[in-house]
Amino acid sequence: MCRNITTLRGLDPPATDEEITAAALQFVRKVTGVTKVSDATREPVEQAVQEISGIVTRLLESLPERRQPPKSVPPLRRPEVQARIAQRIKEREEHERMHELGIAHTH
């Protein structure tokens, strides 16, 4: 279905809330065709992601253990993805700091 959604059942350690939410967001994006959340789509997308995350969490908790681990590593556990996320967070914090200090910058 969607190559960006990875198997979360059977991970060691178990899937985190962040991984479940990321998978739910990818699912919502896929089925709706919303590639970028806007002001017009934010509320329904966030509501759907929250509901789907809850469903997936309960589903993963109720399934028996897997006999074999998943074949692929979820993106949020890959070092290159973690580095990109850390860089984006750093850039966002620097940008917000510029706003706080009233420093001119570009958007």
UniProtKB/TrEMBL annotation:
It comes from the Bacteria. InterPro entries: DUF2277. Pfam families: DUF2277. This is DUF2277 domain-containing protein. It comes from Microlunatus parietis. The lineage of its organism: Bacteria, Bacillati, Actinomycetota, Actinomycetes, Propionibacteriales.
